[in-house]
Protein backbone atom coordinates (compact mmCIF):
# COMPACT_ATOMS: atom_id res chain seq x y z
CA UNK A 1 0.00 0.00 0.00
CA UNK A 2 1.09 3.55 -0.74
CA UNK A 3 1.03 5.55 2.49
CA UNK A 4 -0.15 9.13 1.99
CA UNK A 5 -0.17 12.26 4.12
CA UNK A 6 -2.95 14.60 2.98
CA UNK A 7 -2.82 18.30 3.85
CA UNK A 8 -5.60 20.78 3.05
CA UNK A 9 -7.27 23.36 5.25
CA UNK A 10 -10.74 22.32 4.03
CA UNK A 11 -12.09 19.19 5.72
CA UNK A 12 -14.50 18.46 2.86
CA UNK A 13 -11.65 18.52 0.34
CA UNK A 14 -9.66 16.11 2.49
CA UNK A 15 -12.66 13.79 2.75
CA UNK A 16 -13.20 13.82 -1.01
CA UNK A 17 -9.56 13.22 -1.86
CA UNK A 18 -9.32 10.42 0.71
CA UNK A 19 -12.36 8.72 -0.82
CA UNK A 20 -10.90 8.97 -4.32
CA UNK A 21 -7.56 7.54 -3.23
CA UNK A 22 -9.26 4.73 -1.29
CA UNK A 23 -11.25 3.77 -4.39
CA UNK A 24 -8.00 2.92 -6.17
CA UNK A 25 -7.37 0.08 -3.74
CA UNK A 26 -3.63 0.68 -3.33
CA UNK A 27 -3.43 3.88 -1.29
CA UNK A 28 -3.92 4.50 2.42
CA UNK A 29 -4.20 7.99 3.92
CA UNK A 30 -2.24 7.58 7.15
CA UNK A 31 -2.50 11.18 8.36
CA UNK A 32 -4.39 14.39 7.60
CA UNK A 33 -3.28 17.95 8.29
CA UNK A 34 -5.22 21.20 8.23
CA UNK A 35 -2.22 23.49 7.82
CA UNK A 36 1.34 23.41 6.55
CA UNK A 37 3.06 23.32 9.93
CA UNK A 38 0.99 20.32 10.99
CA UNK A 39 1.79 18.67 7.65
CA UNK A 40 5.53 18.93 8.32
CA UNK A 41 5.12 17.54 11.84
CA UNK A 42 2.99 14.62 10.64
CA UNK A 43 5.40 13.87 7.80
CA UNK A 44 8.22 13.55 10.31
CA UNK A 45 6.09 11.37 12.58
CA UNK A 46 4.58 9.03 9.96
CA UNK A 47 7.23 9.01 7.21
CA UNK A 48 4.63 8.53 4.44
CA UNK A 49 5.51 7.52 0.90
CA UNK A 50 3.79 10.62 -0.48
CA UNK A 51 2.85 13.98 1.02
CA UNK A 52 -0.05 15.50 -0.94
CA UNK A 53 -0.22 19.21 -0.12
CA UNK A 54 -2.54 22.08 -0.90
CA UNK A 55 -0.75 25.37 -1.61
CA UNK A 56 -2.86 27.87 0.31
CA UNK A 57 -2.87 26.82 3.96
CA UNK A 58 -2.61 28.72 7.26
CA UNK A 59 0.45 28.87 9.53
CA UNK A 60 2.76 27.58 6.78
CA UNK A 61 1.79 27.48 3.11
CA UNK A 62 2.09 24.29 1.09
CA UNK A 63 5.13 25.49 -0.86
CA UNK A 64 7.15 26.16 2.29
CA UNK A 65 5.89 22.91 3.81
CA UNK A 66 6.97 21.02 0.69
CA UNK A 67 10.48 22.46 0.88
CA UNK A 68 10.76 21.53 4.56
CA UNK A 69 9.47 17.99 4.02
CA UNK A 70 11.86 17.42 1.11
CA UNK A 71 14.73 18.65 3.27
CA UNK A 72 13.90 16.80 6.49
CA UNK A 73 11.98 13.68 5.39
CA UNK A 74 14.00 12.45 2.40
CA UNK A 75 12.04 9.23 1.95
CA UNK A 76 8.79 11.10 1.30
CA UNK A 77 7.87 12.26 -2.20
CA UNK A 78 5.90 15.50 -2.39
CA UNK A 79 3.05 16.36 -4.74
CA UNK A 80 1.03 19.58 -4.78
CA UNK A 81 -2.76 19.46 -5.09
CA UNK A 82 -4.22 22.79 -6.09
CA UNK A 83 -6.29 24.79 -8.58
CA UNK A 84 -5.17 25.78 -12.06
CA UNK A 85 -5.46 29.45 -11.11
CA UNK A 86 -2.38 28.89 -8.95
CA UNK A 87 -0.23 27.65 -11.84
CA UNK A 88 2.15 30.55 -11.24
CA UNK A 89 3.39 28.57 -8.25
CA UNK A 90 4.46 25.61 -10.40
CA UNK A 91 8.06 26.79 -10.82
CA UNK A 92 8.54 27.39 -7.11
CA UNK A 93 6.94 24.06 -6.21
CA UNK A 94 9.13 22.12 -8.61
CA UNK A 95 12.17 24.13 -7.60
CA UNK A 96 11.45 23.26 -3.98
CA UNK A 97 11.60 19.55 -4.67
CA UNK A 98 7.99 18.58 -5.42
CA UNK A 99 7.76 15.89 -8.10
CA UNK A 100 4.02 16.10 -8.72
CA UNK A 101 1.55 18.89 -9.45
CA UNK A 102 -2.10 17.79 -9.51
CA UNK A 103 -5.28 19.77 -10.03
CA UNK A 104 -8.33 19.55 -7.78
CA UNK A 105 -10.46 19.90 -10.90
CA UNK A 106 -8.75 16.96 -12.61
CA UNK A 107 -10.11 13.49 -13.25
CA UNK A 108 -10.14 11.23 -10.14
CA UNK A 109 -8.11 8.64 -12.03
CA UNK A 110 -5.50 11.33 -12.68
CA UNK A 111 -5.17 11.86 -8.93
CA UNK A 112 -4.71 8.14 -8.31
CA UNK A 113 -2.21 7.83 -11.16
CA UNK A 114 -0.28 10.87 -9.97
CA UNK A 115 0.11 9.60 -6.42
CA UNK A 116 1.16 6.20 -7.74
CA UNK A 117 3.72 7.80 -10.07
CA UNK A 118 5.44 9.98 -7.48
CA UNK A 119 5.44 7.10 -4.98
CA UNK A 120 7.19 5.04 -7.65
CA UNK A 121 9.89 7.67 -8.05
CA UNK A 122 8.56 9.23 -11.25
CA UNK A 123 7.41 12.79 -11.88
CA UNK A 124 3.77 13.59 -12.63
CA UNK A 125 2.19 16.80 -13.86
CA UNK A 126 -1.50 17.16 -14.64
CA UNK A 127 -1.90 17.60 -18.42
CA UNK A 128 -2.89 21.28 -18.11
CA UNK A 129 0.09 21.96 -15.87
CA UNK A 130 2.43 20.06 -18.18
CA UNK A 131 1.24 22.17 -21.10
CA UNK A 132 1.85 25.33 -19.06
CA UNK A 133 5.39 24.18 -18.21
CA UNK A 134 6.16 23.26 -21.83
CA UNK A 135 4.84 26.61 -23.06
CA UNK A 136 7.05 28.28 -20.48
CA UNK A 137 10.04 26.36 -21.80
CA UNK A 138 9.29 27.46 -25.33
CA UNK A 139 8.45 31.04 -24.45
CA UNK A 140 7.69 33.81 -26.86
CA UNK A 141 11.33 34.76 -27.21
CA UNK A 142 12.92 32.41 -29.73
CA UNK A 143 16.38 33.67 -28.86
CA UNK A 144 15.82 32.89 -25.20
CA UNK A 145 14.61 29.42 -26.08
CA UNK A 146 17.67 28.77 -28.23
CA UNK A 147 19.94 29.96 -25.44
CA UNK A 148 18.27 27.59 -22.96
CA UNK A 149 18.62 24.72 -25.41
CA UNK A 150 22.31 25.47 -25.87
CA UNK A 151 22.87 25.60 -22.11
CA UNK A 152 21.00 22.33 -21.65
CA UNK A 153 23.06 20.59 -24.34
CA UNK A 154 26.23 21.79 -22.64
CA UNK A 155 25.01 20.45 -19.30
CA UNK A 156 24.17 16.98 -20.63
CA UNK A 157 27.50 16.77 -22.47
CA UNK A 158 29.14 15.73 -19.18
CA UNK A 159 26.92 12.64 -18.96
CA UNK A 160 27.90 9.22 -20.24
CA UNK A 161 25.90 7.77 -23.16
CA UNK A 162 23.94 5.53 -20.77
CA UNK A 163 23.25 8.43 -18.41
CA UNK A 164 21.93 10.49 -21.34
CA UNK A 165 19.72 7.57 -22.32
CA UNK A 166 18.33 7.34 -18.79
CA UNK A 167 17.82 11.12 -18.69
CA UNK A 168 15.84 10.94 -21.93
CA UNK A 169 13.52 8.33 -20.44
CA UNK A 170 13.13 10.38 -17.26
CA UNK A 171 12.17 13.27 -19.53
CA UNK A 172 9.54 11.06 -21.13
CA UNK A 173 8.00 10.50 -17.70
CA UNK A 174 9.02 6.88 -17.16
CA UNK A 175 9.38 5.54 -13.63
CA UNK A 176 12.43 3.57 -12.48
CA UNK A 177 10.76 0.16 -13.06
CA UNK A 178 9.69 1.27 -16.55
CA UNK A 179 13.21 2.47 -17.38
CA UNK A 180 14.64 -0.79 -16.07
CA UNK A 181 12.32 -2.78 -18.33
CA UNK A 182 13.07 -0.58 -21.34
CA UNK A 183 16.86 -0.83 -20.91
CA UNK A 184 16.93 -4.41 -19.59
CA UNK A 185 18.54 -3.34 -16.31
CA UNK A 186 17.74 -4.12 -12.69
CA UNK A 187 15.88 -1.37 -10.87
CA UNK A 188 18.74 -0.76 -8.43
CA UNK A 189 21.05 0.05 -11.33
CA UNK A 190 18.51 2.51 -12.73
CA UNK A 191 18.23 4.23 -9.35
CA UNK A 192 22.00 4.61 -9.29
CA UNK A 193 21.99 6.09 -12.80
CA UNK A 194 19.20 8.52 -11.92
CA UNK A 195 21.00 9.65 -8.76
CA UNK A 196 24.20 10.17 -10.74
CA UNK A 197 22.35 12.17 -13.40
CA UNK A 198 20.70 14.43 -10.82
CA UNK A 199 24.05 15.00 -9.12
CA UNK A 200 25.97 15.73 -12.32
CA UNK A 201 23.29 18.08 -13.63
CA UNK A 202 23.03 19.83 -10.27
CA UNK A 203 19.24 19.43 -10.08
CA UNK A 204 17.13 18.47 -7.08
CA UNK A 205 14.58 16.10 -8.56
CA UNK A 206 13.28 14.26 -11.61
CA UNK A 207 11.06 17.11 -12.76
CA UNK A 208 14.01 19.48 -13.02
CA UNK A 209 15.98 16.75 -14.80
CA UNK A 210 13.07 16.20 -17.19
CA UNK A 211 13.05 19.91 -18.05
CA UNK A 212 16.76 19.72 -18.91
CA UNK A 213 16.06 16.62 -21.02
CA UNK A 214 13.36 18.45 -22.98
CA UNK A 215 15.51 21.54 -23.50
CA UNK A 216 18.41 19.38 -24.67
CA UNK A 217 16.18 17.40 -27.03
CA UNK A 218 16.79 14.11 -25.21
CA UNK A 219 13.25 13.27 -24.08
CA UNK A 220 12.20 10.11 -25.89
CA UNK A 221 8.69 8.62 -26.06
TrEMBL record:
Residues 3-119 form the Response regulatory domain. The modification 4-aspartylphosphate is found at residue 54. The keyword RNA-binding does not apply. Pfam families: GerE, Response_reg. One of its GO terms (biological process) is phosphorelay signal transduction system. The keyword Metal-binding does not apply. Keywords: DNA-binding, Phosphoprotein, Transcription, Transcription regulation. Residues 152-217 form the HTH luxR-type domain. One of its GO terms (molecular function) is DNA binding. Gene3D superfamilies: 3.40.50.2300. This is LuxR family two component transcriptional regulator. It comes from Streptomyces capillispiralis.
